Amino acid sequence: MKIKSQKDFWSGLMFMATGIAFAWGATNYTIGEGARMGPGYFPLMLGILLTLIGLFIVFEAMVVETEDGEPIGKFAWKPLLFIIGSNVIFGICIGGLPKLGVPAMGLIVGIYALTFVAALAGEEFKVKEVAVLATVLAVMSYVAFILLLKLQFPVWPSFLTA
C-alpha cells in the first residue's frame, strides 16, 4: 500500500508513539476502574485514545488521495528549541538548581521567562504584546494556583521572601 499523504502518515505515527508511551508508562501505576480510578487510569485512557487517533490518521493517509502527496518540509529547529527551552527555564525558575547555587525564582518570574523565551519561537517578537500576555498569564496563574487551589510553591524569588 502506498502512502498518499506523508504529513498525515508521520503525524499519525507520532500520535501512536506518544499514545503507546503514555499507556506503557501508566502500567507502572495502579489503574483501578471507571468507578474507582487509580493514578494510572487517566494516562492509560489518554494513551489508548491517542493511539486510536494515530491509527485513524495513518489509515486515512494511506487511503485518501492527495494532490502532491503532501511531502514533509524541513524541520523547524528554531521553534522547537525555544519552546522546549522555555519550559526548561520555567522549571528552573520554579525550583531553582540547588546543586549549582541557582535559587528558586518563583512562579511570577518563571511565567515571564517562559512567555518571553517562547515568544522568540515565532516570526515576530513585539515586546509590548509579550509583556501584556505575560502579565495576564502571571495574574491568572496566581489566582488559579495560589488563591483558588492553594498550591504550595514559591511565588516570588527566594532571596526576596527570605
UniProtKB/TrEMBL annotation:
Residues 10-154 form the DUF1468 domain. The chain crosses the membrane at residues 12-29, 41-63, 75-97, 103-121, 130-149. It comes from Ramlibacter montanisoli. The lineage of its organism: Bacteria, Pseudomonadati, Pseudomonadota, Betaproteobacteria, Burkholderiales. Keywords: Membrane, Transmembrane, Transmembrane helix. Pfam families: TctB (PF07331). This is Tripartite tricarboxylate transporter TctB family protein.
